[in-house]
Amino acid sequence: MMLPIVRPHFPKLGLFAADFNRALQTGQVTNDGTHVQEFERALTSILGAPTLCFSSGMAALVTMLMASDVDGFDVICPSFTFAATPHAIKLAGATPVFADIDPATLCLDPVDVERRLTTRTAAVMPVDPYGICFDVPKDWTDIDVLIDSAPSFGSTINGSHAPRGHAQIYSFHATKPFSTMEGGAMVSTNSVLMERARQIRNFGQHDNHETRIIGFNGKMMEVCALIGLHQLETWEYRRNARIESASRLRYALEGIEGLRVQHNPLGHEPVWTYRPVFIEPEFGKSRDAVAAALQERGIGVRKYYGACHLEPAYKHSTYPFLRATELLASQVISLPVYDEILDSEIKMIADAFKDIRNG
Ligand SMILES: *Cc1c(COP(=O)(O)O)cnc(C)c1O
């Protein structure tokens, strides 16, 4: 038995073949087509705030930063994230300033962020790691908070997925729980910001075709919106099944000495893009050895997230020592979750950890 790191779900072709074929026949395959508009309206009503679709989470991320005018300034972000986070800050012309995470939540540590605020800080960009939502501190009213929620579509705090911060982006990539193959979205109640984002997504063009600001091509294709609309029909069921899969996996792994399973913070319900576990010294084997042994047994795992500030692309700059980030990035293994993981698959993962520990 092989367990891939992700097992994406997509609607059957027959469900959207006629609409897709019509788009191919009429030639209206992109450029703010009817399906993208319909998908945006559906997302707006689910998320409770205006939503724009993009060709990828990365395109939405760069657009959110460009629209927020961070060019030439600093943006504070975690290092314990996917490299897309600091890359987007760089591409928007700003400098990423890495802050540490809180080991209890794996999210940005607000106290460490506050220590790093300067007159050069244009924004703070928290991440929702694995789908665990960053809880924006109530007193951050003066801070421009732009959230990289790429992995957390469907995650809630106290039952709510109300928008947090000034703007948020989601990824609908095939590795994420809710997918349009490639795709993303930006959500914000700030209408000026959203209008700028809409123009940036289309080469900086205003509706009258004047090029008013710098932009690029971030448009979602019609076929992706069609898939997204069909994904929404099964989403509630799949979201709940996925959360249940993640908790069954957690219970099966509890009690193995030296293996710490990340719990959800109180009141949080993450969708768990992956389920992170940490190999502590009591396990008696190194994280790298455990990850390799799991791979050898056919269990797809990732050493993820890493510490971005230690990656070759970033380590030429001098960054501060980030205690929690560096420790956890050296211990973490991301396990697959799936919408519906079988009991036999959970047993295979738990047995593998026990064997590796005793072997
Ligand atoms: C997946 C991910 C992205 C990138 O999204 P794409 O849709 O693949 O471009 C950005 N940031 C984080 C934290 C992610 O997990």
Comma- or semicolon-separated keywords:
globular, binds pyridoxal-5'-phosphate
Describe this structure as you would to a colleague.
With 359 residues, the protein is of the alpha/beta class. It has helices at residues 13-26, 34-47, 57-67, 84-91, 110-116, 191-201, 222-253, 287-296, 323-331, 343-358, and strands spanning 51-54, 74-78, 95-99, 121-124, 146-148, 156-157, 167-171, 184-187, 259-261, 268-269, 275-279, 332-335. It has a 4-stranded mixed β-sheet, sandwiched between helices. It has a 3-stranded parallel β-sheet with strand order 3-2-4, with helices on both faces. It has a 3-stranded antiparallel β-sheet with strand order 9-11-12. The protein starts with 12 loop residues before the first helix and ends with a helix. Pyridoxal-5'-phosphate binds at residues 56-58, 61, 81-82, 84-85, 127, 148, 150-151, 171, 173, 184.
